[in-house]
Design brief:
With about 425 residues, the chain is mainly α. It is about 70% helix and about 0% strand. The longest helix is centred in the first third of the chain and has 22 residues. The two termini are about 40 Å apart.
Length: about 425
């Protein structure tokens, strides 16, 4: 089957190349084809051909002709792709959408956005995948359309139909790539949190809330999300949301997404965030949630902000001290706290020797060291494994002499295959 599909694709490419060579220098032929296709019946098979003709005509200098037929072509595109009553093959959607690289803001607003609004109300199940291809094909900055996108896609993201969620997620990701204005990034984040809060109806399913939370995390990869003001604003939104979220999985995903934004901080970590970590390390609900907070802190405190981790030293020492022997989750908490303490000990601080001595003594006398037993090692998984990896590397450097001489720390058999 794969061999057959490859042959079909290769044949299609060769035929396309032959056709392009035969008409590329004959503008009269291209114009005849355009007029014939636009005036004929449209289907999911003919719109890609129309899109091909338009991009070809534009490439050979027929811009005036292209601009004269684009409005009608977009009407056909919207009718066939957005208002479809059945699923359209991804290849056809992608090929049909190439014409959108030629359109202006005025055409996008009057034709495409208007078409998206109609389709979201009439045929959202089939239209949403075409939305993604349309947005991906554009060569426009979409910052001015953020409110439109939230109005169109927000209700679909909040609906109870999981098929819509699958289509909306890549659509939002495509939008994130094309938004460059910092105020638009803020508007997108605020709009997402409003969806979580129920502006389009309560989202009862926790996995659905997790999807929205993940999208907010992905928004952090936008080029304009590096502004300290935007980052602090979104972090504040997460902090407020976590106070109302009761599901453990959604809490952990929120903390993980929070870390994506926190990793972009370059100047400082505000007092509210430091206080949130203090509370999260010791009172963060379940052990899994507390581990998530500890792992997130590793993203927040680095380079210029690492010195602020000293404000959490006493809390981290408390976590290490409370580690229970032979309890994998408790040891994982201690591991994550220990890794942060060793990160702090490695920083050139004013009282670094005193901090280093205190941390080494605490780690050597705590139950965290029980992670080196085969019983505990065989039981760790998921976030416990991440905590172990974060812990073991600095442990080796911090305790080089002790590892070589202390018989109670039989670590080498577990580090060498």
């Amino acid at each position: 089957k794969q061999w057959y599909q490859r042959r079909v694709r290769e044949t299609r490419r060769q035929l396309r190349s032959m056709f392009l060579k035969s008409i590329s220098h004959n503008t009269g032929t291209i114009e005849q084809y355009l007029d014939a296709v636009i005036s004929g019946e449209m289907s999911a098979w003919t719109v890609p051909f129309l899109s091909f003709l338009l991009t070809t005509a534009n490439a050979v200098g027929m811009e005036e002709k292209v601009q004269s037929v684009l409005p009608k072509s977009l009407d056909k595109y919207v009718e066939v792709l957005f208002l479809a009553k059945s699923s359209i093959h991804p290849h056809l959607r992608r090929s049909a959408s190439s014409m959108l690289s030629l359109i202006s803001h005025e055409m996008f607003s009057s034709k495409v956005v208007a078409g998206m609004k109609r389709a979201a109300l009439r045929t959202p199940k089939f239209a949403v995948n075409s939305f993604t291809e349309a947005i991906s094909a554009l060569s426009l900055d979409l910052s001015r359309y953020v409110k439109d996108f939230l109005d169109i896609l927000g209700p679909l993201l909040a609906s109870s139909n999981p098929l819509l969620h699958e289509g909306v997620e890549p659509c939002f990701v495509a939008i994130f790539v094309e938004v460059s204005d910092s105020s638009a990034i803020t508007e997108l984040a605020d709009g997402m949190f409003k969806i979580l809060e129920g502006c389009h109806g309560k989202i009862a399913a926790y996995l659905q809330r997790v999807l929205v939370i993940k999208l907010i995390g992905k928004l952090s990869t936008s080029g304009q999300s590096t502004s300290e003001g935007i980052i602090e604003h979104v972090i504040g939104k997460y902090q407020a949301y976590l106070k109302s979220e009761s599901n453990e999985t959604a809490q952990i995903e929120s903390i993980t997404s929070l870390a994506l934004w926190g990793s972009k901080l370059k100047v400082t970590v505000n007092k509210a965030t430091i206080e949130q970590f203090k509370q999260g390390f010791v009172k963060g609900g379940t052990a899994h949630t507390r581990i998530a907070y500890l792992l997130a802190a590793d993203s927040f405190f680095k380079s210029d902000t690492l010195s602020l981790l000293e404000l959490l030293e006493d809390t981290l020492l408390t976590v290490v001290d409370k580690t229970a022997p032979n309890n994998v989750l408790s040891i994982a908490e201690g591991l994550a706290a220990g890794a942060l303490l060793m990160k702090l000990a490695g920083k050139d601080l004013g009282d670094s020797e005193a901090i280093l001595g205190k941390i080494k003594e605490k780690l050597l006398t705590s139950n965290v060291i029980n992670v080196l037993s085969s019983k505990v090692l065989s039981a760790i998984h998921d976030e416990e494994a991440i905590a172990f990896v974060n812990f073991i590397k600095p442990l080796i450097f911090l305790f080089q002499a002790e590892i070589l001489h202390a018989k109670s720390m039989v670590v080498l058999p577990y580090m060498v295959p």
